[in-house]
Amino acid sequence: MNVTLLGQAALNGLLFGGVYSLMAVGLSLIFGVMRVINLAHGDMMVWGSYVAFFLALRLGVDPFVSFLLCAAALFSLGVLVQRGLVNRVLEAPHEMQILLMLGVALVLENLALVIFGPDTRRTESAYGLETVWLGPVFVDVARLMTFVLALAFSLALYLFLFRSDLGRLIRAAADNSYGALVIGADVGRIYTVAFGIGAACVGAAGALMSALVPFSPAAGFAQTVVSFNIVIIGGMGSLLGAFLGGILVAVAESLGAVLLVPSLKELVSFVLLVLILLFRPQGLFGRKTA
Amino acid sequence: MRWALSLALLVLVILPNFLGSYLLTVFIFIFFYAYLGQAWNLLGGYGGQISLGHAAFVGVGAYTSTYLSMTYKLSPWIGMFIGGAAAALLGGVIGYLGFRFGLRGFYFILLTVAFAEICRLIVSHLEPLGGALGLFITFTGNPWQFQFSDNRSYYYIALGMMLASVAIVGAVERSRMGAYLVAIREDEDASEALGVNAFATKLAAIVLSAFLTGMGGTFYANYLFSLQPNTAFGIPLSVEIILRPIVGGSGTLVGPILGSFILSPLAEVSRAYFARGGLSGVHLIIYGSLLIAVVLFFPRGAYPYLRGLLRRLPRRGAP
Fold it and tell me: Is A98 near chain B, with CB under 8 Å?
């Protein structure tokens, strides 16, 4: 096993980590604010991928531009799901919320299957095949672009949450929804916006990822599970943890694909997850709470 | 009530003589999924520990008995118990890890999903188990090898398994352990304060549930004549398993059976009807919508709702 190969795998993983981070940040935001587990996360992502795919196919819009449109589309979907369904079960037991989201996931996945068919697709991008050599390793330009754009999107979200009034209200509601209510915040609206933003993150991630790896309706649940692995490894409710966890899992998977068989790379993140659940259930960057 | 049950049982026993082969298949699936749902119900319904990885136990049980039968010519009737024991062992490992570290709610769900996926990935890469292609059972028609040329045999076996699961879970329900499980589901901390050993009770529940589910795996393999890691360990099978008790009413003996009588024919019919038009995902859209509707409108499932209706009826007629 030579060092260059490992370095190349680590670099590829790192650059791919941007989309993992973005997707996990969306999930973590939804959980942090509403304590709702979005089991439809990966399926929302697949819908984001399809929006990017058809924008590229019909209108020739590059996914590196259209990801913003995909984010907007998924924001609307998120608002609909929150308003129509999630809002009604906020007080229900945890299991009921999970089952509800499982229902949403089944509907979204199979709606995609019925409408778009089972074929595997990949969004065409002008940068799809370009590479730049950097000493002994090469940089895949498309991966670099997704990394930079995912980073920029996450940074924009950070600025929104920490510098704007609405963002501060969202964080207030996440810390203590009753307290937020007391100071006159419209918690219902905050929840809707937060769910929408979480969905927008995963929509943007779906659009960006669709240029790198093929996707199909059936891929959704696997992405949900990966998102959860990342969020739990990073620490539930911690946005920074989700971001760093995404990069960590992507690098680990990429190294795993080189060191083991490529098809066993998912095993790496599951083993990481089991270890974290056993020895540090609050996650790498999470606060210790019940 | 007892009278009505006996009548229903009698109908189910003589029914195969009047059914065509397609309807026979539908009934076999109703019984089999009711059986799996009942096994899940023990842990998820009574104990409140939701597992979304029960397919792992089906897969382990199915692969164990099929591998033993193909390699050592061991009868699946015996392999069934070994497969159940293997699944119980896996259940014990998951339970020990999860419950010892106090993983509750969503964390436990994710642990079960993770283990099912780990099993799926490992089996996909084991050549002796057929890898990603899976195992194929050649048909001999030998009853000792769990193979029957008459579908009615499968019908009676599935019916028997369903009744056995009801008897076992019913016995647990009436036992001290059943009371402990319900107490843990309702309030784990309070039950522990009253002296319930929550860890041991939950561990016993997952081991028994996994054992029963693993035995079901043998039926699964020998009825379908093939095993693939993606279907035997996959999330879709886990979803099928949890849907029936939840739709019917989890934490009740009747729930999984009622749920299976509602869902299995629906799945069969919509699969057969829509797959012909190439719309293979439609039955899962119906499942998803049903799940959403159940959560929003009947959060306790169909049976508690029906029971409530039945109780109200006679009073209306009384003077």
Answer: yes
DSSP B133-198: T-EEPPP---GGGT--SSHHHHHHHHHHHHHHHHHHHHHHHHSHHHHHHHHHHH-HHHHHHTT--H
Question: How many domains does chain B contain in total?
Answer: 1
A96 with B288: Cβ contact below 8 A:
no
Residues 6+ away with beta carbon under 8 Å from A201: A22, A23, A25, A26, A29, A71, A153, A154, A157
- Position A128 scores a pLDDT of 66
ipTM of the complex: 0.83
Alpha-helix residue ranges (DSSP H) falling in chain A: 3-34, 41-59, 63-84, 94-116, 141-163, 165-175, 177-182, 187-210, 219-234, 239-259, 265-279
| Cα–Cα nearest to A124, from A68, A67, A57 | A57
Residue B99 domain flag: yes
Percent of chain A's residues with pLDDT above 90: 37
Q: Which of B261, B233, B267, B235 is nearest to B248 (CA)?
A: B261
Is residue B267 a part of any domain in this protein? no
Q: What residue numbers bound the domain in which B216 lies?
A: 21-234
Q: Which two tokens stand for residue B80?
A: 């069934």
Could you report the per-residue pLDDT of A72-131, keeping only the tens digit for each? 999 999 999 999 998 888 887 777 888 899 899 999 999 999 898 888 888 877 776 777
A106 vs B288, B296, B299: nearest CB: B288
Measured CA to CA, the distance from residue B90 to residue B112 in angstroms comes to: 11
Residues of B near A (CB-CB distance < 8 A)? 48, 50, 97-98, 101-103, 105-107, 109-111, 113-115, 117-118, 121-122, 124-125, 235, 239, 246, 279-282, 284-285, 287-292, 294-296, 299
Rg of chain B in Å (alpha carbons): 20
**CB of B79 within 8 A of CB of B218?**
yes
Q: Fill in the DSSP letter of residue A286.
A: -
Task: Write the DSSP string, B267-292.
Answer: HHHHHHHHHHTT-TTHHHHHHHHHHH
Select the residue from B115, B117, B119, B125 to test the A interface by mutation, using most A Cβ atoms within 10 A: B117
**β-bridge pairing B135-136 and A137-140:** unpaired
Beta bridge partners of A65: none
Q: What is the mean pLDDT of residues A169-187?
A: 84
Cβ–Cβ contacts within 10 Å for residue A160, how many?
A: 14
* Chain centroid offset of residue B300 CA: 18
Nearest CA-CA partner of A46 in A229, A214, A228, A219:
A219
CB contacts, 8 Å: B238 with chain A: none
- Averaged confidence pLDDT in chain A: 87
Q: pLDDT of A16-63, one tens digit each?
A: 999 999 999 999 999 888 888 899 999 999 999 999 999 988 888 888
For residue B318, name the pLDDT band (cuts at 50, 70, 90).
very low
Would you call B38 helix, strand, or coil by DSSP? helix
Answer yes or no: is B11 within a domain: no
Question: How far, in whole angstroms, is CA A214 from its chain's centroid?
Answer: 16
Q: Is residue B225 part of a domain?
A: yes
For chain B, give percent helix, strand, coil, nearest 5: 80, 0, 20
Instruction: Tell me: pLDDT of B319 over 60.
Output: no
Calculate mean pLDDT across residues B139-145.
Answer: 81
